[in-house]
Write a structure and sequence with these properties.
about 300 residues, mainly alpha, globular
């Protein structure tokens, strides 16, 4: 896996769009091999895993998703999770850096596709390795997601960026505080009120606001991508943690620092009310419909 990651990192660090595409496909292929059952397809040989495609696309279409309980016992996933605990092999950081370079390049259809591919990979990485979400507690990375929500970006990029933003904030209150500090609420509500924003993006923005207004819960102390402690010691615990979902996390595990990072629903409602009218109606609808019953911010 180190050989594949090393090759992918070299490719996505390039200024050549063909190499960037190749590197992103290599990462996507690695994630697909971890998340999808092989079915009747033959396993790839070590030499094939170092190839550009990293996975046969025909096999990927026939494969079925693995259940969360299966991931903890999967050697590939355990190795992937172990490697993510160190800065050298953390993929989320490398893909985020690639996104930043892509934003600095000439905007065209080709570049937009690479941005979308990067966002798709990043969302999957943050779901597979929750400790990597801590990178979005840093302003430089949070600002990257907010830049992607600028009106000049195409609707597909805006929608994909909102999905990554939700994943980055999920069960990570300290990231939500960074989002607020970086005027994230102003960015989101301005895009929502912009007449040029498409209806499909407005729907996703509304979904994001529902998510933002949900009650927060502290998370257990876990290792950041540049440490070697925490979940790395026992990846088998991850399946149980996923199945319990964020809503069942107890504040006793998060420590005093985690609790201080939490804002009440009323506090967030007041903050959002600075930029948007009828926030009370959103909260009432959220409480009545409970669109995300098993999720806590």
């Amino acid at each position: 896996m180190e050989a594949l990651l090393s090759l992918a990192f070299d490719n996505i660090a390039s200024k050549d769009t063909q190499k960037i595409r190749k590197g992103l496909r290599q990462i996507e292929g690695m994630l697909a091999q971890i998340c999808l059952s092989s079915g009747k397809s033959k396993p790839s040989t070590p030499g094939h895993r170092r190839n550009a495609s990293a996975i046969n696309l025909g096999e990927q279409q026939q494969a079925s998703p693995k259940k969360l309980g299966q991931l903890a016992e999967d050697p590939a996933f355990r190795e992937f999770f172990r490697l993510q605990e160190g800065f050298e092999w953390n993929v989320s950081t490398r893909v985020a850096d690639c996104l930043e370079r892509l934003l600095g390049m000439t905007s065209n259809g080709q570049n937009d596709l690479l941005i979308l591919s990067s966002l798709s990979n990043l969302q999957g990485l943050l779901l597979l390795h929750p400790p990597s979400r801590t990178i979005f507690g840093r302003e430089v990375y949070m600002n990257l997601l907010l830049d992607l929500l600028d009106p000049y970006n195409c609707p597909a990029i805006q929608s994909a960026s909102l999905l990554v933003l939700v994943t980055a904030l999920l069960a990570t209150p300290q990231n939500t505080r960074t989002f607020e500090h970086m005027d994230g609420l102003l960015t989101v509500t301005s895009l929502f009120k912009d007449d040029e924003t498409t209806q499909s993006v407005k729907v996703k923005l509304l979904e994001f606001l529902y998510f933002y207004l949900m009650p927060e819960a502290p998370v257990p102390s876990a290792s950041a991508p540049n440490t070697a402690v925490g979940l790395q010691r026992s990846p088998s615990k991850l399946a149980g943690a996923f199945e319990r979902r964020s809503s069942t996390v107890s504040g006793d595990d998060g420590g005093g620092a985690a609790r201080k990072n939490i804002r009440t629903q009323e506090e967030k409602q007041h903050m959002l009310g600075r930029y948007l009218n009828n926030v009370d109606a959103l909260v009432q609808d959220l409480q009545e419909s409970a669109p995300f019953p098993n999720v806590a911010c």
